[in-house]
Amino acid sequence: MNPFENKLSSFTINLQSTDAMSKGWKIYWVVVAATVTNYLMMILWSLPLVSEMAGGGVPFDMRLGGYTFDEARVFLMVITDAGRDFYLNTQQLLDWFYPTLFAITVAIPLVHLVPRYGGWVLAALAIAAGALDHLENSAVAVMLRVEPNGLTEAMVSTASNLSLAKSILTTIVLVALLVVLCIKGIVWLKTRQAQAV
């Protein structure tokens, strides 16, 4: 193989690699769009509707600091049968997709942008936050399926602790991603300014 053929072969391999990367990022941005759409549907439609059908009570998913046994019992007493059904089916269906979409959306840029093992650690926290969200949904479903008088301290404590843990991990990874993006943005701007001089 002559030098020209070597260069051509190397260029073709690089082109194929870039093409694969490009396709991968296109898929990633589709996931990001799905995550944002899913989130907006819950925040702007399903969760406000649950709240309305619970006499203005805050849905369990939105009580980021957790909740007490009495607070959970009051919510379950005031929510209508239609509200309970909507929460269990429509809202929880939307929230079944969201944790996984969120984890993918946040984990991938952290792995790519944070050097060494730091990115993988933060990505693992994002995945853990998604897993906790799934567990929280299951715990909330258990509470929604029982009568208010059948509610136990253990049910509420489990769901509340999962909500709190999910909130803490979600906050950590989102703040980390925001800080990383700000740093990368500043570096990019400084590089552009240096090149312009």
On the 0 to 100 scale, the average pLDDT is: 88
The separation of the N and C termini measures: 43 Å
Number of helical segments with 4 or more residues: 5
The proportion of residues in beta strands is under 5%
User: Structural class, from secondary structure content?
Assistant: mainly alpha
Summarize, please.
With 197 residues, the chain is mainly alpha-helical. It is 84% helix and 0% strand. The protein has one domain (27-196).
Structure, explained:
The protein is mainly α and about 200 residues long. The protein has one domain. The chain has five helices and no strands. It has helices at about 5-55, 70-80, 80-115, 120-145, 155-195. It is elongated, with a radius of gyration of 23 Å. Mean pLDDT is about 90; it is low at about 1-15.
Layout of helices and strands:
Blueprint: H1 3-53, H2 69-78, H3 81-113, H4 118-144, H5 153-196
Keywords:
mainly alpha, elongated, single chain, disordered N terminus, 197 residues
